[in-house]
Amino acid sequence: MSDADFEVEVAYATEAEQLILTVEGAPGMTVEEAIRRSGIVGRFPEIDLTSLKVGVFGKAARLDADLNPGDRVEIYRPLVADPKEARKKRASEGKAMKKGGGRSDQ
């Protein structure tokens, strides 16, 4: 690696597998470039950069965003459940359990 080059990571996870690949680049390398250079799209054909969201260290990023040395690019899968709906369901299940009493000595 020359002085102008740096490394970033590209991360993707399925339910069964988690993968983090290191990619070498130079100043001006974009999120999309790092993803393409990593070869991760060939390994996980379900990755569609036109529809999936990406981020850098947990913050949403655009594909044309420039990267800094040591950045971790993350490719996010679509949510299986709406977080608000899941929270409402858990809350209502908790209320139902409280109404049931929970005491068996009566």
TrEMBL record:
<dbReference type="InterPro" id="IPR005346">
    <property type="entry name" value="RnfH"/>
</dbReference>
<comment type="similarity">
    <text>Belongs to the UPF0125 (RnfH) family.</text>
</comment>
<protein>
    <recommendedName>
        <fullName>UPF0125 protein C3L24_11775</fullName>
    </recommendedName>
</protein>
<feature type="region of interest" description="Disordered">
    <location>
        <begin position="84"/>
        <end position="106"/>
    </location>
</feature>
<feature type="compositionally biased region" description="Basic and acidic residues">
    <location>
        <begin position="91"/>
        <end position="106"/>
    </location>
</feature>
<dbReference type="InterPro" id="IPR037021">
    <property type="entry name" value="RnfH_sf"/>
</dbReference>
<dbReference type="Pfam" id="PF03658">
    <property type="entry name" value="Ub-RnfH"/>
</dbReference>
<dbReference type="InterPro" id="IPR016155">
    <property type="entry name" value="Mopterin_synth/thiamin_S_b"/>
</dbReference>
